[in-house]
Structures are given as structure tokens and as C-alpha cells.
Amino acid sequence: MENIKENIRIMNPADSKIPEGPVAEKWTNYKAHQKLVNPANKRRLDVIVVGTGLAGASAASTLAEMGFNVLNFCIQDSPRRAHSIAAQGGINAAKNYQNDGDSVYRLFYDTVKGGDYRAREANVYRLAEVSNNIIDQCVAQGVPFAREYGGLLANRSFGGAQVSRTFYAKGQTGQQLLLGAYSSLNRQIQAGKVKSYNRYEMHDVVLIKDKDGVERARGIIAKNLVTGKLERFAAHAVVIATGGYGNTYFLSTNAMGCNCSAAMACYRKGAYFANPAYVQIHPTCIPVHGDKQSKLTLMSESLRNDGRIWVPKKLEDAVKLQKGQIKGSDIPEEDRDYYLERRYPAFGNLVPRDVASRAAKERCDAGFGVNNTGLAVFLDFSEAINRLGIDVVRQRYGNLFDMYEEITDVNPGEFAREANGVNYYNPMMIFPAIHYTMGGIWVDYELQTSVKGLFAIGECNFSDHGANRLGASALMQGLADGYFVLPYTIQNYLSDQITVPRFTTDTPEFDAAEAKCQENLDRLMNIKGKRSVDSLHKELGHIMWEYVGMARDKEGLELALQKLKDIRETFNKDLFIPGTQDGMNIELDKAFRLNDFITMGELIAYDALNRNESCGGHFRTEYQTPEGEALRDDKDYFYVSCWDYAGSDSKAPTLIKEPLHYEAIKVQTRNYKS
Amino acid sequence: MEENIMKVNLKVWRQANPREKGGFVTYNDVETTPDTSFLETLDILNETLIEKGEEPIVFDHDCREGICGMCSLYINGHPHGPATGATTCQLYMRRFQNGETITVEPWRSAAFPVIKDLMVDRNAFDKIQQAGGYVSFNCGGAQDANDLPISKVNADEAMDSASCIGCGACVAACKNGSAMLFVSAKISQLALLPQGAVEKDRRVRAMVAKMDELGFGNCTNTGACSAECPKNIKLANIGRMNRQFIAAKCKE
Hints:
The structure holds 2 protein chains of 2 kinds. By secondary structure, chain A is of the alpha+beta class. Among the domains of chain A are: 283-433, Flavocytochrome C3, Chain A, domain 1 (Alpha-Beta Complex); 506-659, Fumarate reductase/succinate dehydrogenase flavoprotein-like, C-terminal domain (Methane Monooxygenase Hydroxylase, Chain G, domain 1). Helix content of chain A is 37%, strand content 16%. Chain A has a 5-stranded mixed sheet. A 5-stranded parallel sheet of chain A has the order 6-3-2-10-20, sandwiched between helices. A 5-stranded antiparallel sheet of chain A has the order 12-18-15-13-14. In chain A, helix 4 (54-66) runs parallel beside helix 7, helix 4 runs parallel beside helix 14 and helix 16 (533-547) packs antiparallel against helix 17. Chain A is globular. The two termini of chain A are 40 Å apart. The longest helix of chain B has 16 residues, at 236-251. Chain B has helices at 38-51, 123-132, 152-162, 169-173, 180-191, 194-197, 200-213, 224-228, 236-251; strands at residues 6-14, 23-32, 74-75, 78-79, 101-105, 114-116, 119-120. Chain B has 2 domains: 6-116, Beta-grasp domain (Ubiquitin-like (UB roll), Roll); 123-251, Alpha-helical ferredoxin (Fumarate Reductase Iron-sulfur Protein, Chain B, domain 2, Orthogonal Bundle). Chain B starts with 5 loop residues before the first strand and ends with a helix. Chain B has a 5-stranded mixed sheet with strand order 2-1-5-3-4. In chain B, strands 6-7 form a two-stranded antiparallel ribbon. By secondary structure, chain B is α+β, with helices and mostly antiparallel strands.
């Protein structure tokens, strides 16, 4: 770490391009004064959008509707498969349809507080401001949100809020929102304004110097995953919408194909990577069952509206549960410890995710875990079923109950026993798992990275969630960026590019970039060792979860960095990829991604080691209150950590600090107790 | 954890690329457990193939929680295997017997050519959606969401139709290789909502024409599509599409 300390510098406040004025007027002011591109010029400008999730699809379709020509890429067989589709619970908006005191300010405040005061105020306010437009937009597209009998939209509650502001479509909100964006995208593909490239993976971003010597993003190198060939694509700007880096941990709720390679390619070309240590661990996932497991399944946060989380009060009961001698439903009400309700009376089971996850870990570490591994807690619906009846509960969560039963062979709605007039039902078992990454490519207020002409949107940027994201806010941010923010801000950049003619990919810069990508693929093929990609990825995941996971400390992080170095060495010496580069080679594609996951893992560890405080998803055991709550250090760490690539994967990156400035909100300790 | 080891024989379709002839290869005694998913069992087999220096079996998969629609596979004669209302990635080995031989094939349909092994090209589905599966509306001009009340009954029914994950099981299950369940699900979703009603005639004509053009077969009401659908998309959607189609054609 010594070399990092020597290199630290402070970012010029102007670099974040936050507009003047009070926080509530910044976005309005920005839109009033930004530069626009006229319709005739829009037709002459091309934009590459990599990714087709909520952010990518909404940006691609909206830019095309405006008149730009869009080239849109995804690694799946169709844009509709992007992992946004798996989001279950809902999307937040400050509509105040429930008349419960919600407002743009309150959504803004909850998001900043939920993010443990580590987000940029101006960005979050804008997010809250456009949240209402998103709901209008999606309804106009035909997204079938849940409704009341009167025909108006229904809402539910999510963690970190005391209002009901979450819109939902059964437990499939992400699917419906993504299919909405996909339908708009399809309309533009049909109109010839978007060219869609499926089963293509971005390998590099191509920078070209303009006449003033400024390097600008002018295209990408992408691999056609079916033919195995590298191809070149040019445009006036490049937008990255490729999601988060949760799969660095191997086991996560992310889809198998989710990866951080596009983000790492940008990072290696000079885009800062911000706050990588902020990784969200979701409290309600199905516990790990064995070493052959390939992924973890999330049980939606919406379950915490009616489900109550508990472990036994008595250690002997926990031991019996661990040995399989009794079942959860055998433990009577008075012997259950509803620890979230006990510790956080004001928010109860609806505390933010980081708080709920740590509380589960605390109970399991103390020996109260409820399954054979000791790494699980109960999520119980008995009270809700007794209060509402099984039919109502199934109507709300039936698809989640079915999903849980299919995986675990236990039906959480099933009657177990009756005692002293109380009906007991089978509880679910849950445990925290890697779910979302708040960190990402650094962007300014315009969502432009530190590389000119390169933009990052959705989960793959760092901008809005601070150190912890609230439930139902990922969908909101992805769509805010894609529908309502980027299509405006990118014009401020493109307006200066209207005289740049459409160019070919037959340039020395494209030659060099493609040659480098090819060299990397050749290198991977030629290692010819003995280890499969997955076996190495599991090893990486184990190190990350053990030392860079839910609880971190200096010693562990230093050890992790050493172990990651060893993994890289093993990878470089002993990797084996069967087959050839001709045609589809899934092992080669996985190896390409794993190479970047290792670099990403180091970046997370560097950042976690640097940040000597606990905040949101980043918990350092050295920095906690006597009650075990996160202990922030606003004096020394009230900044965004931006990591600048040092020219080689084996060198430690340089730290640049973007100081945070709060005008509207008073920074204080998060309190979910009262 | 005390895990019951079980062994299965996997009879898998292998095909190097679209041009070469494919065939079944049987892999005996693949070790797994009842709590392991079917795709994880394929992962286990692939690891052993890689150890032997052989190419792994290629199959489409991504979210592994039954929603992305990427996974496919014809398992023992059923799209997505023996479980009802579930995708292949949600299939667990407890559904099979110890020692059983499980036959695994790609989707079989002229409209879905094999890319490699068990992976097929479903681009035709995207093309049908592009022909008209949307509300023609530009971002930015929407009215307040609650200005358009929609009956809960219609909204719920539209939601059921919209649950289609576009996996292609309906086409694979159909003896005619018909895509009518898939196409009608989108048409129904938008037909049930006021936002989609304005251009319903144009939509149904365009989508049906594209479906025919791409070589999908017609419907003969066997209902296999709906029976095998992992999302239980109802056959009634096809009826609604046919009524809309006839009405639209009559207006021509």
C-alpha cells in the first residue's frame, strides 16, 4: 500500500461538472443551458451502446427516437435476456399516490441516507426528480404494473423507506420493465435507426486523438461469439451499459454471463474506476448448499413486507436445528428472536440491505445459524398467513414461494403445526449473498467518464447509490440514466462533434487495438496448462468472499492481495482451454472474463484497504460502534475513491479523491432504530 | 452436509457447427446429487470433459432462475424437462432416478437452426417482435401514469400474457413448429391495454405476416405449446390473436 499513498491526488471540483444553483434547480438549469444537436446533424452522428439491460436498451431506443444512429451490442442471443430481467421486487418513484407523505425530496433524502452519505448529492436529486417520468413512460409503453380495483397503480414498501413508493409487476418487475425497453428498441430496429448485434462481446474501446491532440472514444473492438472473429465498429461516442462486477465473487445472484470485462477495458484505457469496495450483499438469498453450486438465487426484498426474520433465542435450539433434530416450525413464538425488530424498532424487517445482512451474519457468527452449515436464518410468514390468510399471501408472493420450493423442496406456505391456538408454517431459510455493485466506472454529472466521448450508465457506473443501494432503486437508476439523463447530456458532447465526418475503422488506432485483443486471446489459448476456468474462478470467489466480503480487516485484505497475486500467476501458467479460436469457444470467452475478474478483485481489495472506515456495503471490523454498527469517518473519507490504471495489471493503481460536498442534506449517523 | 450421491447417464446431442452432421454421445455415470440442478450437472460433466482435454458441451443459459429465457433443451422428450411450469435451469436432479439415462437434445425446429451442440439460433423471435410488438410512442411525452385507469382484471390478464420469456419451448413442443403461442402472448398483452389498442390492427397483421415469412408452422389446436410452456401462457391467447387477425383483415 505504500506506493498508493505516495500517488494520491485530489480531483479538481470542476471535473465533476455539477451545475450551479440549489440542488433542486441544478437539473432544470442544466437542461436550460446545455448544447443541443439539431435534427439534420443527429442523422450524421453514430453512437455505440454496449449492453441491452434497462440502461442500455432505454438509452439505445431513446437516442434512436431522437434521430441518432445507434449500434447496440449484447453478449446474449437477444437483447431481451440482459440480467435486468431478473429483478423481482419493483421500482421506486416519488409519485406519492398513496398519500403517505412522499416527495422528490424524501426519495432523494432516503437514497442519500440509505447510501450512507457517500453518494453525490446532485446526481441523487436528479434521480429522484426523474423517477416519476419513468413510471409514466413505462405505463405508456404498456408495462402491466400491478393495479388496485379502481384501476390506479398499486404500491408496496421496500427497505430504507417509511413510505410505499415501489411500483411492481408481480415478482417480475425487472422483466416487465426490460421488455418495455426492448419493445421500444425493437421499434427503432425496425425503423432502421438501431443496428442490433447479438452474441457480440466488447473486448476493447478504441481511442483516437482529435486535431487538438485530445484522445476521444471512437469505437470498439468486439468479438463475434459465434464465429470467434474480432470485428471493428466506429462511432462518434461510446456508451457502456454492461452492468456490475458481482461475479468476481463467483457465487452471486448475477447471471452466469454477467462480467466486468467491458468496464475493465475502459479502466485500462484511462477511465477511472470509482468506489469498487462498495459491494452489496443482499440479505435474502437461498443459502449455499454445496460446492457444485453455480449461482445463488435471490428471494425478493418485497418478502420483508410480510415476512419476519428470526433465529432461535436459545443456543441449544440452534444446535438442534443445525443437527437436523428439529425444524424451525417446532420452535414456539416465545423462543424466537426477531432480531431486526429487536435492534431496529422503527424500521424492523425493512432496514436497508447492508444492515440486514450484517445483522444476519452477527447472529450466525454467534452460533445461532439455523441450517447444517450454520449459515442461514429464517424468514417466516406464519404471522402474515394468520393475519391475511394463505390466499392473500400467495397472491403476493406465490411465484417466489414456488421458486423456493423448486430449489429447496420446502414449501414456505405449508402448514406445519398448531400450538396454543397459534398456527405455525414452514419458514424459508435465507442468507446474504453478493447481489449488486454500487461502485463502477467514474462518471461526471453528464455520465461521461474520465475519457472524452466515453459514457457509462446503469449499474456499471458508480454515480447514485453511494455505499449502499436501497431496494427498487437499481431499476430506477438504470431507466433514469437511459431514458431521461444520457439522451440529454450526451448532446452536450456530441454538439461539438457535428463536423467530424463518419469515419472508417481502417485506421492505425483500430489496427493496434485489434492486434492487442488478438494477442490477448492467443496468449490465453497458448498457456496450455491443466486448470479449467471454473476451477480458478471458484478459487478467486472463495478468496473474495472470505477476505473481501461482508466483514473486512486490514490483515485479511493484505492477505487477499497476496492470494490474488498467486491466482493470477496460476492463471497465467496453468490455465487450460480446449478447442481452437475458430468458431464458438465458450471456455475461451470465460477465460477472457476471468482474467478481468482477477484485476477487478484486486481493485476491490485496494479500495477496501484504503478506506479506513465502515460505511454501507463496506464494513471494516476495526471500525464499528460498541453495538456493532458501521462507524464512518467523515473527516478523512468523505470522498469518492477514483482509481486510475497504472499501465499494467500487476501495478497498484493510483488513487484520486473526488471530495463530496453536501448542501441540502446534513451528514449524520444513519439511524434506523427510532 | 450428508449428500446422497446419484449417478446418471447423459445422452447428449453433439454438433460442431451448423454445417456438420450431429449425433448423440452418451456419457455414463455422471456423478451428481438430488439437490444439484440439471444445468449444474451439465457443468460437472463439462469439467470432466475439460480435464480430459475435450471440448465442453455448449448450451445456452444465463440467469439460472427461470426468467431470462436463455436456457432451452429437450430433456427426455419434453422442452425444459419433466417439471411443469419451470425452465431447464429450475430443474433439479431429484426429478430423476439414480442410474437413469437422460436424453438431451436442442430445440428441433426449422426456424431455430443449431449453432453448436445444444445451442440454437432464436433470432426469428426478435424479428417477429420487431415487426410490431410495441406501442409506437417516443420517450418523453407520456401523461401521468394514473391518468389512465386500467381495470385490475385486464391489467392482471395482460401481465399473465406478458410473462412469456421468449424461450421457444412452444415452438419446440409443436408438431407444426408453430410460434403462435409466443406471438399471441405479445398481441394479447397489448390488446388488453388501452395503450396498445390504437394500433392493434396494424400490429396483428405485421406480426402474423412476419411469423409466416420466417417459416413457422400453423396452429392445429393440439395445445402442446401451452402444456409445455414454463410460464403457463394460456392457449386463450391464440384465440384472441385469431379474432384480432380476422377483424383486422376484414377491415382491409
